[in-house]
């Protein structure tokens, strides 16, 4: 039976959307040429509250309190925001998540720490379809430490499965570095099951949560995860270049070998000691001075997610994904498009990717005509579905424009 893809259905879906009021909490898109913003999984839209808080921080905390603000509350921001993020989106008890650096730096720290916790093992495992940063860092750390990279030969669109991980992980494996949600297809990996498998082989798992945090529930503690990292400028709407976060399970923290030993991770930050002595707990994962202005966006993004609730956010992401699939089947598949994302709701993250032989040219035309999407090589058009800012009529208008321009 053909799905109903009418404007009336889009209106009904918008009317029933419990999260629709949250759209008013974001800075309006001033460009009248934008038909739809379907790239919130690369850069989320700015919150009105973030703009207000930044003005307050500049005028009061920085402008008036000056350097006193460090002692008053800035120094504790990374841990306080990390705890809130852990509770709201990561399934992590306090003291295990902290805001620090970029995703790349956080990955470097956690991979190095994981390898150090497994002396005598000389392999790092990752997959060939993983995000470039993850693959590049695995290769560079292996070269730095004289280790070998063992590759899971993953399909660029289907990703990897537990069976492939099982074949790659063995007695020589120190760390396994994988993404929870595939950046191309949105395929969700079995974080708990794969972590359990990795542990059975005596290795440790490092998870990249960039495309899952703020979009789908993550239960790091329940899965007995070891390490995780993620960015905050996608579904958390923290802003371009906003700092990332890292998670270190409490059981690993005493032995966490910090490879970038900056003063903020020292036991006595202002002691100016002759030699580095790591701070207790998750604070040892810090290196340099926290980026206070960048953390404002993280703080506000997490607060809004807490208000919306990750369960409702996930439910809307699923509904938006189904709507895209219905529209794509009705309008785009007959024009030569194929669906590259899982059709099963429990296997699909917060975006849907369609493939087309002329996707690169078409992507440029779509952006030029107001449908802001992402092109992913070699032939993918990625439609980001940020539940707090994306509406069902907006999605229908975008899909109609894609059909028109294809």
From TrEMBL:
EC number: 3.7.1.3
SUPFAM superfamilies linked to this entry: PLP-dependent transferases
Molecular function GO labels: transaminase activity
InterPro entries, A to Z: DegT/StrS_aminotransferase, Kynureninase, PyrdxlP-dep_Trfase, PyrdxlP-dep_Trfase_major, PyrdxlP-dep_Trfase_small
Enzyme class, first EC level, given as a word: hydrolase
Keywords noted in UniProt: Aminotransferase, Antibiotic biosynthesis, Hydrolase, Pyridine nucleotide biosynthesis, Pyridoxal phosphate, Transferase
Domain of life: Bacteria
Subunit: Homodimer.
The name this protein goes by in its record: Kynureninase
Native organism: Amycolatopsis heterodermiae
Lineage: Bacteria, Bacillati, Actinomycetota, Actinomycetes, Pseudonocardiales
């Amino acid at each position: 039976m053909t799905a109903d893809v009418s404007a009336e259905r889009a209106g009904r879906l918008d009317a029933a959307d419990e999260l629709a009021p949250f759209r008013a909490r974001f800075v309006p898109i001033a460009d009248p040429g934008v038909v739809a913003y379907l790239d919130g999984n690369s850069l989320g839209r700015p919150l009105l509250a973030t703009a207000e808080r930044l003005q307050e921080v500049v005028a009061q905390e920085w402008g008036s309190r000056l350097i006193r603000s460090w002692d008053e509350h800035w120094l504790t921001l990374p841990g306080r925001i990390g705890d809130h993020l852990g509770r709201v989106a990561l399934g992590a008890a306090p003291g295990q998540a902290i805001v620090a650096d970029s995703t790349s730096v956080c990955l470097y720290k956690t991979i190095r720490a994981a390898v150090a916790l497994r002396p005598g093992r000389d392999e790092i495992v990752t997959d060939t379809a993983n995000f470039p940063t993850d693959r590049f860092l695995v290769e560079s750390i292996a070269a730095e430490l004289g280790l070998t990279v063992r590759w899971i030969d993953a399909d660029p669109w289907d990703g990897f499965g537990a069976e492939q991980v099982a074949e790659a992980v063995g007695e020589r494996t120190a760390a396994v570095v994988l993404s929870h949600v595939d950046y191309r297809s949105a395929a969700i990996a079995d974080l708990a099951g794969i972590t359990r498998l990795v542990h059975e082989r005596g290795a440790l798992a490092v998870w990249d949560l960039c495309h899952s945090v703020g979009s789908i529930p993550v239960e790091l503690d329940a899965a007995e995860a070891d390490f995780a990292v993620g960015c905050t400028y996608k579904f958390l709407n923290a802003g371009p270049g906003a700092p990332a976060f890292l998670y270190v399970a409490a059981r690993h923290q005493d032995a966490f070998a910090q490879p970038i030993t900056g003063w903020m991770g020292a036991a006595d930050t202002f002691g100016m000691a002759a030699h580095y002595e790591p701070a207790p707990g998750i604070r040892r994962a810090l290196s340099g001075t926290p980026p206070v202005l960048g953390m404002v966006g993280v703080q506000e993004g997490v607060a809004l997610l807490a208000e919306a609730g990750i369960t409702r956010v996930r439910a809307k992401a699923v509904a938006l994904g189904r709507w895209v699939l219905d529209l794509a089947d009705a309008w785009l598949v007959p024009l030569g498009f194929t669906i590259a994302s899982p059709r099963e709701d429990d296997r699909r993250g917060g975006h849907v990717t369609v493939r087309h032989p002329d996707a690169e040219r078409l992507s440029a035309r779509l952006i030029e005509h107001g449908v802001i999407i992402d092109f992913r090589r070699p032939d993918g058009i990625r439609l980001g579905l940020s539940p707090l800012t994306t509406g069902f009529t907006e999605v229908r208008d975008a899909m109609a424009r894609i059909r028109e321009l294809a």
